[in-house]
Design goal:
alpha+beta, Helix Hairpins, HSP40/DNAj peptide-binding domain, four-stranded mixed sheet, three-stranded mixed sheet, 10 helices, about 30% helix, about 25% strand, binds zinc ion
Length: about 375
Amino acid sequence: MSTTAKRDYYEVLNVSRNAGLDEIKAAYRRMAIRFHPDKNPDDPEAEEKFKEASEAYAVLSDPEKRQRYDRFGHEGVSGEGFTGFNSESFVDFADILGDIFGFGDFFGSRRGRSRSGSQRGSDLRYTMSLTLEEAATGVTRKIRIPRLEVCEACSGSGVEPGTRAETCPTCGGRGQVGYRRGFLTVAQTCPACGGTGRVVPHPCRSCHGRGRIEKETTLEVKVPPGVDTGVRLRLSGEGESGVRGGGRGDLYVIVSVEPHELFEREGPHLHMKLPVSVFQAMLGATITVPTILGERREITLKPGSQPGEIIRIRGAGMPELGSRGAGDLLVHLDVVVPRKLSKEQRKLIAQAAALAGEQLTEDDEGLLQRLKRRLANEA
Ligand SMILES: [Zn+2]
Ligand SMILES: [Zn+2]
């Protein structure tokens, strides 16, 4: 720990110089919860704050050390901070954090961290936005992802080249320390070195001792046909590099499919609204419709087709993920009535209406008759 410009312990915990033990405890708890390394992975600033607060707490919570610190400042307690506390302050420390993180979690090995300090790299997530066409055909995409790679300068050791790691003074290299709890002496992972038994006096300057450096990588991702929003593609071993020989994490590409202007997706099926003229609906017609795969399919409207009628084209929907099957395309007829008619059209259509026995001016009686006829037809 650097000795230059060491901050005042009271200032570190943000308590007054005559604060009681409870107040000091509460202040430290707040900071420990906020800056704990498990909550702030790969954040050196938070880690530094955590260490600083722990050191301040180790001194100020001990009446004897606090007295010495009050009289002589940092000189009076040098070497008695976080890395050098004795078993008494250690017990206190365990008590205060035990109920926050779970005793085993903090003093035992951290999640994914082994005895040797190796740790698997984190999994990464990347959200890939696709058009519906791309989701239908499948696509190969180049993506750029920033991720932590093993530092080349120190080969991931975190030790500045030309210097060496040293035996941890707290545990004497054993990786474990004993502390008393009532009658018992319990062995726990050494908090100063995380159980590795080694400390690094000169951290690598390229990676600040982290052993890894953020780098941007370009990857080619093959997206199979048929994916939908929320589908996760796992790229094994394309996550972040591990720490000290730990394996690489995975990369998860999360698919997000954009809405389409023509087609609406429902699982493997697609819906589309097809505007047809009232004449096509009345007389019947053959119409060519586009599919999502860029093909053209002919559909036949029967004479007398109704608004909202659905024509199903089998197999013209979305390909099904991981199979040769495909959904259907459901064409919803949207019958459009012309807003304007020519004189000639008007005359002919009026004739057709007269032939159908339609009255263009309808009294209440006529409307009732018509509704009854219609109900009878539908029954
Ligand atoms: Zn390095
Ligand atoms: Zn140690």
